[in-house]
Amino acid sequence: MNLRLARGTPWWIGLSWIPTLLVRGTPARLACAGLAAGATAFFRDPSRRARTAGLVAPADGRIREVTRRPDGRWFVSIYLALYNVHVTRMPCDGVVTRQDHVEGEHRLAFADTASTNERMEWVVNTEWGPLEMTQYSGAAARRIVPYVGVGARSRRGERIGLIRFGSRVDLLLPLGLLPTVVVGQRPRAGEDIVAITDGSLS
């Protein structure tokens, strides 16, 4: 069993187990233990075996949108429920060229209006061109914790940040990359491919 906790896990996760030792009565103790276990599980950080080609999912969750923009680039959006792993991973090899934290609302992450939420906007220089990625906070999420900054060179599947509680991650793919996922699919971060090059289809 993998009990690794993500970097950026809040200190109160450890303290949440203390009431389990202090309260009296089995029902109350079980309730406290259940809440503490749920909070701990949210911040789990399992090991993943990264693919060697294509763009991998930056986050666990459900594909909520796959659309083509007027400029020809494809947009892929992933919604993370509370039970998903919330560690964000690099979709492909690249160098972070921009990283902007934008203040905003805390609307439900699966709603269309979540585009106005607090977010971290990334631009990553890849072999195919610039990849744009946005981490959104949600109604419960209140903090985005980046692990790397501008200038960082990251490999496909590497951990690059954490979003605390329910959230969303969007990708705007470079020209020439085609999505391999459809709405409703549930990819695993760092392992499942979400986009490939035109040449991969031949």
Outline the structure in words.
It is a single chain. By secondary structure, this protein is mainly β. The chain folds into two domains: 1-47; 55-201, Glucose Permease (Domain IIA) (Distorted Sandwich), CATH 2.70.70.10. It contains three helices and 13 strands; from the N terminus they run αααβββββββββββββ. The strands form three sheets. Strands 2-3-11-7-6-5-9 form a seven-stranded antiparallel β-sheet, with no helix packed on it.
Mean pLDDT, as a whole number? 84
Task: Determine the number of helices (DSSP H or I, runs of at least 4 residues).
Answer: 3
- Radius of gyration over all CA atoms, rounded: 18 Å
Oligomer: single chain
Strand order of the largest sheet: 2-3-11-7-6-5-9
What's a quick, concise take on this entry?
With 202 residues, the protein is mainly β. The protein has three helices and 13 strands; from the N terminus they run αααβββββββββββββ.
